[in-house]
């Protein structure tokens, strides 16, 4: 072998595999069609992009909108990098036609967007604001006229600031149910897919436990568990409200489950990753999909466990049409012979990360997210409702952004997602985060996640290399 050049080695391998193929029995061909090297997705697979209202819209005080917790938080000195706010963001409130054009140019089938609750109910409840609703009707009509299916998230963290106590109050969950009922009724027909909430842990734990996100509180465990309970209760009441008011729509959620990949793909470690998935997501997805808090979670929390009222668990366990998974990064799980059956690995200092330090590069996470969720709970359908990465994008003198690191990240994730599809898991679609650079929460505008570059001074959008790459993925329905 030493004496062969690399090229000769390649030829030798090809010749051997041709020989092997020639000797394969008939059924083996049937099993491997279409060729796995094409990395093809199933027919009808939905390709889209995702955004969220506060991150792109701007127009913070327009047409009757009142502040959300994020407006208040962003205007509190020291909370957001560089003192950035979402006041203007991408000005998508006014530029939505241009943004629809970007989707159209990609050939996208779908767009995951969110509705700003305080545009619809400026005070969180009570009198609806017709101007706010009309805006979304125009946005949806523009998408539909361009053949793009809207997947609408009702709550992507921008809670109306006027609601007393925020998520500490059970009334907020009830207000969400009313808001969901109203929006579902008004948008019924235009929207076939509703997503109740986005990422429980981000608006509960990060907002009320470690204070990194709005409203920036650091509460003790019992109160945090109650906030979490109000979050999942809101989701459940939202599902019921949507079903009652838009009976033909599909209902799901978008959740950033903690994703566990086995350290080695053998049966013991696969089982460990599965157990970790169920256990570590206990207060959120596990409870929603099982309709009860797992006993181990209640035992662990003891006196800090949430207070649950009659009827809560029935709402929380409402049947879902799909589970949406937001996928960015994995944690590695290992079988360790302990009673709970798993140990979690720390990342070595040398573990590669993307531009946001919280994104540890682990493309197999997308496969294990889908597989673990399906193996444990068998949901009827799964979407990837977010996947993407920040990158230190630079404009070349010619005006190009060659974000090869983002393309690498995305391509490798899609390769692993294709594996899940090829193995028959019910994965129906993929939403890339994000259509365009935007307000990245506490990181402000310092982290760019878009496949379109935004010049925040001029609001000019420029497709990055990753946009061209995604266009080809969509056209071929395959990893390219
Ligand atoms: C997710 C959020 C989304 C965006 C990405 C990078 O946690 O849902 O709004 O900020 O991270």
Q: Which structural traits does this protein have?
A:
480 residues, alpha/beta, 8-stranded parallel beta barrel, 3-stranded mixed β-sheet, globular, disordered N terminus, binds beta-D-fucopyranose
How are the secondary structure elements laid out?
Blueprint: H1 6-22, H2 26-32, E1 46-50, H3 53-56, H4 69-74, H5 92-106, E2 110-114, H6 117-120, H7 130-145, E3 149-155, H8 170-187, E4 193-198, H9 200-203, H10 205-208, H11 221-245, E5 250-255, E6 260-262, H12 267-280, H13 282-290, H14 295-301, H15 312-316, E7 322-327, E8 331-334, E9 343-344, H16 364-377, E10 382-387, H17 404-422, E11 427-433, E12 452-455, E13 460-463, H18 465-476
Parallel strand pairs: 1-2, 1-11, 2-3, 3-4, 4-5, 5-7, 6-8, 7-10, 10-11
Antiparallel strand pairs: 8-9, 12-13
Helix pairs in contact: 5-7, 8-11, 12-13, 12-16, 16-17
Bound molecules: beta-D-fucopyranose.
Describe this structure in words.
It is a single chain. With 480 residues, the protein is α/β, with parallel strands linked by helices. The protein is 42% helix and 14% strand. It is built from 18 helices and 13 strands. The strands form 3 sheets. The chain has an 8-stranded parallel beta barrel, surrounded by 5 helices. The two termini are 31 Å apart. The structure holds beta-D-fucopyranose (FCB). Beta-D-fucopyranose binds next to loops.
Summarize the structure.
Helix content is 42%, strand content 14%.
The total of helices stands at 18
Sequence of strands across the biggest β-sheet: 1-2-3-4-5-7-10-11
Strand content: 5-15%
**What structural category characterises the helix and strand content?**
alpha/beta
Given as residue ranges, the uncertain stretches (5+ residues, pLDDT < 50) are 1-34
Described by strand count, sense and barrel closure, the largest sheet is: 8 strands, parallel, barrel
Name the overall outline. Answer: globular
Record field, number of beta strands: 13
Distance between the termini: 31 Å
Radius of gyration: 23 Å
- What's the helical proportion of residues? 40-55%
């Amino acid at each position: 072998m030493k004496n062969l050049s690399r090229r000769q080695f390649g030829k030798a391998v090809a010749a051997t595999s041709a020989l092997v193929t020639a000797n394969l029995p008939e059924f083996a061909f049937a099993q491997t069609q279409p060729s796995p090297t094409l990395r093809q997705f199933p027919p009808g697979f939905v390709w889209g992009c995702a955004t969220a209202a506060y991150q792109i819209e701007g127009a913070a005080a327009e047409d009757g909108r009142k502040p959300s917790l994020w407006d208040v938080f962003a205007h509190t000195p020291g909370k957001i990098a560089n003192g950035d706010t979402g006041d203007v963001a991408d000005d998508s409130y006014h530029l939505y036609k241009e943004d629809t054009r970007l989707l159209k140019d990609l050939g996208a089938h779908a767009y995951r967007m969110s509705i700003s609750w305080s545009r619809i109910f400026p005070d969180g409840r009570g009198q609806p604001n017709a101007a706010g609703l009309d805006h979304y009707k125009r946005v949806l009509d523009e998408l539909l006229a361009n053949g793009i299916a809207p997947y609408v998230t009702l709550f992507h963290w921008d809670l109306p600031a006027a609601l007393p106590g925020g998520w500490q109050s059970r009334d907020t969950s009830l207000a969400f149910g009313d808001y969901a009922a109203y929006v579902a009724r008004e948008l019924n027909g235009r929207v076939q897919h509703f997503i109740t909430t986005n990422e429980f842990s981000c608006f509960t734990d990060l907002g009320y436990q470690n204070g990194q996100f709005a409203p920036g509180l650091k509460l003790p465990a019992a109160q945090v568990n109650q906030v979490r309970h109000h979050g999942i209760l809101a989701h459940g009441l939202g599902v019921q409200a949507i079903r009652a008011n838009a009976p033909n729509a599909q209902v799901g959620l978008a959740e950033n489950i903690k994703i566990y990949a086995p350290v080695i793909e053998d049966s013991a470690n696969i089982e460990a990753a599965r157990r970790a998935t169920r256990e570590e997501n206990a207060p959120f997805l596990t409870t929603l999909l099982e309709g009860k808090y797992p006993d181990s979670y209640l035992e662990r929390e003891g006196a800090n466990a949430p207070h649950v009222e009659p009827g809560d668990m029935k709402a929380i366990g409402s049947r879902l049409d799909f589970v949406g998974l937001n996928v960015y990064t994995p944690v590695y799980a290992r079988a360790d012979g302990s009673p709970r059956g798993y140990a979690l690995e720390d990342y070595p200092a040398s573990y590669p990360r993307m531009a946001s330090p919280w994104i540890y590069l682990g493309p197999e996470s997308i496969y294990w997210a889908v597989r673990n969720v399906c193996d444990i709970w068998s949901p009827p359908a799964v979407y990837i409702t977010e996947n993407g990465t920040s990158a230190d994008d630079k404009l070349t003198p010619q005006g190009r952004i060659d974000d090869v690191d983002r393309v690498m990240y995305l391509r490798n994730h899609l390769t692993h997602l294709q594996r899940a599809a090829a193995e028959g898991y019910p994965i129906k679609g993929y939403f890339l985060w994000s259509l365009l650079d935007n307000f990245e929460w506490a990181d402000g505008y310092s982290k760019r996640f878009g496949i379109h570059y935004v010049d925040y001074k001029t609001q000019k959008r420029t497709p990055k290399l990753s946009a061209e790459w995604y266009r080809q993925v969509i056209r071929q329905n395959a990893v390219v």
